[in-house]
Structure formats: C-alpha cells, structure tokens
C-alpha cells in the first residue's frame, strides 16, 4: 500500500459540498492500493454537520487526525451547527478578515496542522502529500513539509486560488501577496489537480511557467453507492417536482427563478399550479421572505438541511433538478459538486448558466434545459418546455456512457493511477 498524507480542513463530520470530493477520494483510495491519513480540523462552529458521512470512512484502512486551531469558528463558545449569517454580514466579515489574514482566515489552523504533520511524517514513512483547497493556507503547510521532508506534493484545486470568486483583495499589496504565495506553491508542486478545464486555463494564464502537462483534470462526481442506498419518496404523478439541493450565495440565488415562476403563474396558471419548487438545504431568511412576498408558499417546499443520503433520496425522487450560476469574477470556472450528483440521478437538469465550465457540462449531458440566469423570458420558456415534456412523458434521458464517467470510484482509480505514475517518475 502506498501511504498518502491528505491535508483537508473540510472533512466529515462537517457537511455541505466542500467535504464530498475529499471524502470520496479517501473512501475509494484503499481499493486502489493507497492508505490515506487525513489531517483535518477539529470541533468548531460550522453551518452543517452530517455525522452519517463518518460511516464511509473505514478505520482499518484510513486514519483521521484532527487539529484544533484558533480561527474564529473554533473560538466561538457554541460548537457544532450554527446559523448561516445574512449575505451582507458574510461580505462585511470577509472584507474585514481579508485585511489581516493572507491568504485566508484559517492561518491559525494551518500553523497547528504543520506541527502535527511534522510529527506524522517523523513517525511514519509517507509516499506523497496531497492537499486540497480552499482554504489555501493549508497549501502553505504542504509546501513547507515538502521542503523539510523531500516528499512529492500534489495540490488539489476545488476552486481557484488567485481570483477565487469569494476572495477580497483590499489593497494591491494584498493581491500581490496572494498571487506570490500561489506562485511559490505551484513552483513546489509535483502535480496540480483541478476540477475542470476553465480552472486549468486560468491557472496557466496567471502563471506562465505552468505547463499543460503539469495539470490533471479530475472532475467532481457522484457515488453510485449513495444512489443504491437511497430510496425514493412517493409523489403525485400529475405534479412536476423541480428540486434544488445545496446552498445559496452571491452567484447562486433562486430570486430570478422565483420571480420568473411568479410571472409564469400569472400568465399560465395551469402550468405553474402543477409545478412544485423544492429547496433542499439551508435557506436564508431573506429568501424565505421573498417567497412570502411573491405569495408562492403553496408552490414551494423547503426541506432544510438534511443528511447527504437524504439529499440524494430527494434528488432521486424529483422529476427534474435545477441549478444556477450567475455572473461574477471567474464565475465561468465554477462547476458545483451538486451538478454531478444531478448527473448521477440521470434526471433532466434545468441550468440557468452563462458561458463557462458548467454550461459545457450541461451541453455534454444532453438532458438539459439551459437559460440565461438573468433573462426572465428564457427562464419562463425553459420552465414551460420542461412542463410540456413532463406532461407528454417525453422528458430527456442522458446517455449511460456519459453518466458512468463521473462515478467517484472510477475517478479515484484514475487519480491514484496518475499518482503512482508520478512516484515512479520521481
């Protein structure tokens, strides 16, 4: 067995989409002759916990080491699940935080993680260090470990680092610090992993020394065992269930969908009255208030945060699935993890997206209804077309070969094969 040290701040029992990619790699690595040790965060305040995810970690093949930092969510007196703040408060906190913490506010955890990682590498022999970001302060840990222990190091980008759509650079000096930190990390990395071609292109554009062969694309995916384990909820045959699973934030919001649906209700009530919008996940109070203002309560079902397996059950039990990615800095590089769980369901996907990585995946998927995220006319037409196809029992179905290529077990096998090749070259 090859031994791999994985540095990942976000890991179960924390929930939400940020943990899924790393968790599934860890789950399937032992099947591919890799023994992972995960260095992750300890008990702190977070927006969602899903203890059921811990059942996917085999303690006989995987070690999990938890480090408690001094970042703000570790210092709060309340541990466990906390409410998500309003978007304007999140932005204010991010702005203030960006003045004092570069590259991000998880620096204190990274410092303690470095101490623990040194112990692990001194006590056991590891073949490779694998670090995933964000947060990218953890990548600085991996760079230092490679320097001290001369072990190959791989960086997994779940999102961009420099140019990250949530990042705030209060001054040109801060911007320079972030970019120079990424420059050093890329110079030290033996391989770079990204989720899609747009991220790869952007990194190569920002850092001209990075070669095409330095970056490996390993997309997000879905776990076939989740879909096998999740049952199906009963539903009315004559009502179309359109589901969104996940969080909402600045670039991903249902307000345009809700406004367009209200217009559809006024213009074609016989269509809208047979459509139910289902939101699975944490819904901020401002969005609940919008639903009330539009008088759409009877057409919207809010499930709240549920376990990952329960969210898969609701995805399977839907007629179609909805997603949206709006316009923002480098938003064309965003491909949310939920899109690939949608793909695993083989259900039609309604995607309100602009040109970019997500739109390319939807076009490849085929069973898609695509509209501009801000064009109410296009949104209404997409909803009308979806309902008409549903009523005529003509909803599109994707090709099995396309769906198969995004299985998590296959993606992990591909990744570990590339890592083994990297070790042989070294």
Write the layout of secondary structure elements.
Blueprint (H helix, E strand, L loop, with lengths): L1 E6 L12 H9 L5 E8 L3 E2 L16 E5 L4 H4 L4 E2 L5 H14 L6 H17 L4 E6 L3 H13 L3 E5 L14 H17 L2 E4 L2 H10 L8 E3 L6 H6 L10 E6 L9 H13 L1 H4 L2 E6 L4 H9 L6 E5 L3 H9 L3 E6 L11 H9 L3 E5 L3 H9 L2 E4 L4 H16 L8 H5 L3 H18 L1
Parallel strand pairs: 1-2, 1-6, 2-4, 3-5, 6-7, 7-8, 8-9, 10-11, 10-13, 11-12, 13-14, 14-15
Task: Produce a short descriptive summary.
The chain is of the alpha/beta class and 426 residues long.
Tag the structure with descriptive keywords.
426 residues; alpha/beta; 17% strand; Rossmann fold; 2 domains
Average of pLDDT: 93
Assembly state of the chains shown: single chain
Structural classification: alpha/beta
- Per DSSP, what share of the residues sits in E-state strands of 2 or more residues? 15-25%
CATH architecture term of the largest domain: 3-Layer(aba) Sandwich
Q: Write the CATH fold name of the largest domain.
A: Rossmann fold
Summarize the amount of helix as a percent range.
40-55%
> Low-confidence spans: pLDDT under 50, at least 5 residues?
none
Strand order of the largest sheet: 4-2-1-6-7-8-9
Broad CATH class of the largest domain: Alpha Beta
CATH homologous superfamily caption of the largest domain? Glycogen Phosphorylase B
What count of structural domains?
2
Q: Helix segment count?
A: 17
- Given the C-alpha coordinates, what overall shape results? globular
Work out the radius of gyration.
Answer: 22 Å
Largest sheet: 7 strands, parallel
Straight-line N-to-C gap: 17 Å
| Number of beta-strand segments | 15
């Amino acid at each position: 067995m090859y031994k791999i040290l994985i540095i990942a701040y976000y890991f179960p029992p924390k929930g939400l989409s940020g943990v899924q990619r790393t968790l599934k790699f860890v789950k399937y690595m032992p099947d591919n002759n890799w023994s992972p040790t995960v260095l992750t965060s300890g008990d702190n305040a977070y927006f969602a916990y899903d203890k059921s995810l811990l059942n996917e970690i085999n303690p006989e093949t995987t070690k999990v080491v938890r480090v408690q930092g001094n970042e703000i969510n570790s210092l709060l007196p309340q541990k466990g699940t906390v409410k998500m703040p309003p978007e304007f408060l999140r932005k204010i906190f991010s702005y203030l935080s960006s003045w004092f913490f570069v590259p991000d506010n998880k620096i204190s955890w990274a410092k303690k993680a470095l101490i623990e990682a040194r112990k692990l590498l001194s006590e056991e022999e590891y073949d490779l260090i694998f670090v995933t970001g964000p947060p990218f302060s953890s990548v600085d840990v991996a760079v230092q470990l490679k320097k001290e222990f001369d072990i190959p190091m791989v960086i997994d980008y779940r999102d961009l680092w420099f140019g990250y759509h949530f990042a705030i650079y209060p001054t040109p000096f801060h911007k320079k610090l972030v970019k120079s930190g990424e420059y050093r990390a890329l110079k030290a990395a033996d391989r770079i992993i990204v989720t899609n071609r747009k991220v790869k292109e952007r990194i190569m554009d920002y850092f001209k020394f990075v070669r095409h062969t330095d970056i490996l694309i390993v997309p997000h995916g879905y776990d076939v065992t989740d879909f096998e384990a999740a049952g199906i909820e009963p539903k009315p045959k004559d009502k179309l269930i359109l589901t969104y699973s996940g969080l909402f934030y600045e670039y991903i919001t249902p307000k345009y969908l809700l406004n367009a649906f209200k217009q559809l209700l006024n213009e074609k009530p016989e269509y809208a009255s047979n459509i139910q919008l289902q939101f699975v996940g944490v819904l901020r109070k401002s969005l609940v208030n919008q639903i009330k203002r539009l008088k759409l309560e009877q057409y919207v079902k809010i499930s709240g945060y549920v376990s990952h397996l329960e969210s898969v059950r609701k995805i399977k039990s839907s007629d179609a699935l909805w997603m949206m990615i709006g316009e923002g800095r480098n938003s064309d590089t965003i491909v949310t993890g939920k899109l690939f769980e949608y793909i695993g369901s083989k259900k039609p996907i309604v995607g309100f997206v602009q040109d970019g990585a997500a739109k390319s995946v939807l076009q490849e998927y085929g069973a898609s209804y695509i509209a501009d995220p801000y064009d109410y006319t296009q949104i209404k037409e997409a909803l009308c077309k979806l309902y008409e196809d549903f009523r005529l029992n003509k909803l599109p179905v994707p090709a099995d070969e396309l769906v198969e290529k995004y299985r998590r077990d296959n993606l992990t096998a591909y990744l570990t094969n590339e890592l083994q090749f990297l070790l042989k070259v070294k």
